[in-house]
Amino acid sequence: MIVAMTGFDHFKLLAPIYDKVISNGNFDRLIGLADIPFDGYVLDLGGGTGRVALSFNKISKNIEIVDITLGMLKVARKKGLNAICANGELLPFPGDFFSRILIIDALHHIKNQKQVTMEIWRVLQPGGFLIIVEPFYDHLSGKMIRVMEKVLLMGSKFLTDDSILALFDNLSSGIQVVHEKGNSLLKIRK
């Protein structure tokens, strides 16, 4: 994935301590949205250290983490996870390969969100789900995260729910949006 940073790689610096600083959280709701069990592969795009993939790994061993930050992927590999360094705009997978794609707290770090949308749609199987979790734009915690990442010069590009859904205009008619604990959870069926 192309990260919209201003020359400084925040995630390279954060990689060794990321799992200690960022809550691993309870991903039961997320797993429920993914309609477990299912056959096929899961892509965790922008999956970094694998904190989310680790929860899914208990259910399915067919999980691929794709991120552009080598330091984060090194942590994921130490956990025994499949981790690939690749750009989200040109994924190294055939079309219709994944039955589930996760983008958890990563969409706002993608510079060319529309191009990545088209690429993930290419590798998502018909009938599969894309699950996006982002800070809820209008919630106080979402506002605080936007301010914090702006102060840290992370170059993040946060979107409202409607703006995220607009990325999928004419691609899907099966979209579910849930707000929970300051996050927007979007489930988009291909």
Q: Could you characterize the architecture of this molecule?
A:
It is built from eight helices and seven strands; from the N terminus they run αααβαβαββαβααββ. It has one domain: Vaccinia Virus protein VP39 (Rossmann fold, 3-Layer(aba) Sandwich), CATH 3.40.50. The protein has a seven-stranded mixed β-sheet with strand order 3-2-1-4-5-7-6. 31% of the residues lie in helices and 25% in strands. The protein has helices spanning 10-14, 18-21, 28-33, 53-57, 70-78, 113-123, 140-151, 161-166; strands at 41-45, 63-67, 82-85, 98-104, 124-135, 174-180, 183-189. By secondary structure, the chain is an alpha/beta fold.
H and E order: HHHEHEHEEHEHHEE
Straight-line N-to-C gap: 21 Å
Q: What number is the mean pLDDT?
A: 83
Please identify the structural class as seen in this structure: alpha/beta
Q: How much helicity do the residues have?
A: 25-40%
CATH topology: Rossmann fold
Overall shape: it is: globular
Main sheet overview: 7 strands, mixed
**Uncertain parts:** 1-6
CATH superfamily: Vaccinia Virus protein VP39
Name of the CATH class:
Alpha Beta
What would CATH call the architecture?
A: 3-Layer(aba) Sandwich
Count of helical regions = 8
Please tally the β strands and state the result.
7
Strand content: 15-25%
Radius of gyration: 15 Å
**Main sheet: strand order:** 3-2-1-4-5-7-6
The number of domains is: 1
